[in-house]
Amino acid sequence: MAEETPNRSPGGAAVLDKAxxxxxxxxxxxxxxxxxxxVNSMEYVITTLRQVVPQLSEQDAMAVMLEAHNTGLxxxxxCDIEPAEFYCETLKSKGLTSSIEPED
Length: 104
What we know:
The longest helix is centred in the middle third of the chain and has 14 residues, at 58-71. Helix 2 (42-52) packs across helix 3. The protein has one domain: CATH 3.30.1390.10. It has a three-stranded antiparallel sheet. It is elongated and about 50 Å long. The protein is an alpha+beta fold and 104 residues long. The chain contains four helices and three strands.
């Protein structure tokens, strides 16, 4: 007599593991932008970026500064709205021009 196995659709267990009410929607992300700065020195901009956004390495901060210098805008970081507003306002308080916009 053959043993009976339950009839399961492919991936059925995975569906049961994630009930729809438990799936969390990702919060929208925002880009913090640095605008070209004809006033402050490149070194000041790099130092300020690293102070305000500690996760930026010296090389990352330099790349952001050069992107802003060459194209008019540099992407500093993409994050949730609260830290984005904090980074933007802190950069402004240190004399740099910054803005935020939703990530596409």
